[in-house]
């Protein structure tokens, strides 16, 4: 469907803080949380609403609520860093988990955990991962949520490489992709250049 780079001065400022190699885990996590929230604000601009009647203290008027369930699927581990920011805007969102790790030499993703909420067929599903590098992990996660019956799927990433964008567009032409930046390329180790390094390690302090 569509590939959108969500451009906003606040996002650019915060992403720059994340990219800097000297930013510690606290700064990295705080800015990831805030960018995820800002991206969700943009993505949900077109979300379907249900109209209903409410009473204010002095009158009866129309009220609105989000029509369909929202389900977030962070790809573990790094996708977890995007959940809280979005949940601040949509507190009723349900959360599934897809655990994948990327083999360091082949870059192939491997699944180690998958759990979903019930009835995701009609929901708006957001697959979350800060990094879209080769696109292998995103493709595997989208395969999984499709297998579970999800039909309205959006992939939300912070930084994408052109290779990952093309790979997901080829395998899943029916989904919308949102990113905060489309970077230059992948290096020989599968890292996004200029990127921000290993998102999972920077969030969880594992290196
Ligand atoms: C990273 C990242 C993505 C994946 C992207 O995860 O968070 O899930 O790599 O690469 P790809 O587009 O080439 O598949 P990693 O496998 O390092 O696991 P982690 O989140 O646990 O660190
Ligand atoms: N995974 C990351 O965390 N960073 C990259 O640059 C590529 C894959």
From TrEMBL:
5-phospho-alpha-D-ribose 1-diphosphate binds at residues 77, 102, 129-137, 198. Belongs to the UPRTase family. Pathway: Pyrimidine metabolism; UMP biosynthesis via salvage pathway; UMP from uracil: step 1/1. Keywords: Allosteric enzyme, Glycosyltransferase, GTP-binding, Magnesium, Nucleotide-binding, Transferase. The lineage of its organism: Bacteria, Bacillati, Mycoplasmatota, Mollicutes, Entomoplasmatales. The gene is upp. This is Uracil phosphoribosyltransferase. One of its GO terms (biological process) is UMP salvage. GO terms for cellular component: cytoplasm. Allosterically activated by GTP. Catalyzes the conversion of uracil and 5-phospho-alpha-D-ribose 1-diphosphate (PRPP) to UMP and diphosphate.
